[in-house]
Amino acid sequence: MNLDTQSTSHRRPSSGRRGWLALVGACGVALTAVTGAQQAGDYTIGPQDVLSIAVLNQADLGGKFAVELDGSFSFPLIGRVVASGLTIPGLETELRTRLANGFFNNPRLTVAIEQYRSQRVFVTGEVKNAGAYALVGDMTLIEVLAKAGSTTPAAGDEVVIVPGRSPGAAEAAAAAGESDVVRVNLKDLQSGAATVPNIDLRDGDTIYVPRAELAYVYGQVRNPGSYPISAGTTVLQALSLAGGVTPTGATNRLNVIRVVNGEKKELRIKLTDVLQPGDTIVVPERFF
Fold first, then answer.
1. Which of 54, 118, 204, 274 lies at a 20 to 30 A Cα distance from 108?
2. Which residues on neighbouring strands pair with residue 94, listed in sequence order?
3. Max Cα distance, the chain (Å)
4. Cα within 13 Å of Cα(64), Cβ side
5. Among 251, 256, 249, 260, which residue's Cα sits nearest to residue 229?
6. What domains can be seen in the chain, in order of their start residue?
């Protein structure tokens, strides 16, 4: 055996901007899913991962090996091998050492991850494909969102990362404003703004995309109804979402119905005023 083992590390871009370029367009293109026997040098092996191991010139020794719940698997000749907690290079070193102890002279082998099953993050809320996704290497927040098919049109203007919570518990933690919850502005994330924090995703984290707050538009508009708004949305922008004012609408006498201190009040507003969540704009008919 005279060939060296090659263990390739697939490292993903750490920059939010580079991750966003992979989305291209209106958050619509999902990144390619991790499939086949792929390697990630900094990935920590865990229970239920499936390994693909090849030993040079010893085809009978190689194959696919599932890491059991106790973190180990059985390998020919050497018996049980503890893989949990090791990286791929670390496991390769362990296997070489044990095979060299009485079995082969300078054994050459490679280890790859056939299926990532031990480390996962959950994506929930306003994404196209909510669910659990394998956490591989230094995967970025925007890459995980891309794997979930990106956000829906009903998404709000932030992404919430809740460490170590199931999806249901994560939404409750986000609503309660718990101290370990991290909030990231979605527009800043998409644009790769320098102000976006470097989020270190961990096994068991939940990424939650809340639904946008709504405002309601009624009266003399082309498409009355409810519309998602973000921070800073003006009355004029909301009217545009509703298709604009009809020829019989009066924009100089606009009213908004707003809850103030638990009571509904009707207030006069201007086109440049900023809306609050739950506002109802009423466009009256013009006087002739």
1. 118
2. none
3. 101
4. 11
5. 256
6. 24-115 (3.30.1950.10), 120-209 (3.10.560.10), 213-283 (3.10.560.10)
